[in-house]
TrEMBL record:
This is NAD(P)-binding protein. InterPro entries: FAD-binding_protein (IPR028348), FAD-dep_OxRdtase_2_FAD-bd (IPR003953), FAD-depend_C (IPR049516), FAD/NAD-bd_sf (IPR036188). GO terms for molecular function: oxidoreductase activity. PANTHER family: FAD/NAD(P)-BINDING OXIDOREDUCTASE, FAD_NAD(P)-BINDING OXIDOREDUCTASE FAMILY PROTEIN. It comes from Candidatus Coproplasma excrementigallinarum. The keyword Cell membrane does not apply. The keyword Membrane does not apply. Keywords: Flavoprotein, Oxidoreductase. Residues 78-114 form the FAD-dependent oxidoreductase 2 FAD-binding domain. Pfam families: FAD-depend_C (PF21688), FAD_binding_2 (PF00890). Residues 266-457 form the FAD-dependent protein C-terminal domain.
Amino acid sequence: MIKRIDNIKIPVGNEDGKLYQLIKKKAGGRLGYFKIIKKSLDARNKDNIFWLYSVAYSSGSESEQKPPLKKLENAPLVCIIGSGPAGLCCAVRLADHGYAPVIIERGGPVEERTAAVNTFFSERKLDTNCNVQFGEGGAGTFSDGKLNTQTKDGFNRDVLETFARFGAPEEILFLNKPHIGSDKLKDVLKNIRQYIISCGGKFLFNKLFNGFRAENGSLRAVTFRDVKTGEEDELEVSAAVLALGHSARDTFRMLDKNGILMEPRDFAVGVRIEHNAFEISRAQYGRFAKMLPAADYKLVSHAHERNVFTFCMCPGGVVIPAASEEGGVVVNGMSDYARDAVNSNSALMVQMYRTDFGEGLFDGMEFQRRLEEKAFLAGGSDYRAPCQLFGDFLRDRVSQNFGSVAPTYAAGVKFAPLSEVLPQKAVEALKVAVPDMASRLKGFDCPDAVLTGVESRFSSPLRIVRGEDRQSVSLKNLYPCGEGSGYSGGITSSAADGIRTAEYIFNVHYSAGRYI
């Protein structure tokens, strides 16, 4: 019989070995089955930091197994537009159910995409279709692969199991704040691709979805253009999943032109803030700092009328160029699996409302674009990013030299007043919020902390309106999902949305009885 024990406290240092011996003793010296269910760090008391475990074990050979998924015979053709977390997890679940999905992706496979991104980082030559935002894996490929989420979706566990199944570290299944690392995530993507192809599916890379054909209010076909040759093509489908991501601005315009109902959304904008990683660890862990992985943090400030919060925190990571349009600068954060870079960084986001940018459908999108264009100009019009030390930002002066923290933005930075790039409300809020956050995380307001702008792709500025049946209210058999649909945010919630969409499509076809 499998038993479970919660709240096991293990001191820092060789904790997994100590845990195994403890559970083996409880099992009477014979441990046939052992599984860590959850592992988190309790650092509330810096003089007594410990790991907290929940485990399942048995002295016999029992194991936990899920029943196999039901499959269809002669499953209809489903097309998935976009190969980010939502699109790929949707495709995997459909393949598990017997489908052979076709994935249309405007960017390249991860090998080609990595080369294009590296060229942009080193030579500042931007490919507007294959970059940090577009290509196999979506924007999350170059952001650390963080899998923690605030949403309580029943499919969150399925997301973790899917990534682990295709090569992500097994620890993501039990860590309280799981992450894959951008370096390891690329191999996971290749494994997912190979699986889908082995199931009869196809990947159409470097193909831009640019239209569709409908009959009697139902989708019949999607059209796409090869971004390298310009060749147009059409694919007849029974359903299409729209997993566009939050940066497909041209596609949003096309959908609106073709009568797909969308609505504007509020979002947040801000900057990246960088500190020395060890200083953050020392503030969080005290004397245990050298014994533990790079520390993370999650901070919120209500000190100003505009809420300010940290987002996508990258322990031991770097700030990266994340533009997808010519003449714009966008920043993001990224960590590899080891999280061993000198700096730690996080987005510092300020909430924006439609009263700030307008009520029109595309006003928010154009607001984001204007900020990116301002950042481009402030950085020297060559994809360098404008940056400023926090102490100088607070005093409205242009920085002259770096202090104890050096910037990591790969395309280079230029000292510039960020107050001339960001909305005035955001500037005011950041000046109040950072010192307030420092009251909870010592040193967060370090004068040498580096601010780099602009972080503008926090979430989609639009929502593609769908009904309870997960279909567009404007067109049957069109399924918006993931971050670009405006119904999720981040890797895990977007991937879960993709799995849920796949299950809905399967149940519709399965219940029809024609394909059983």
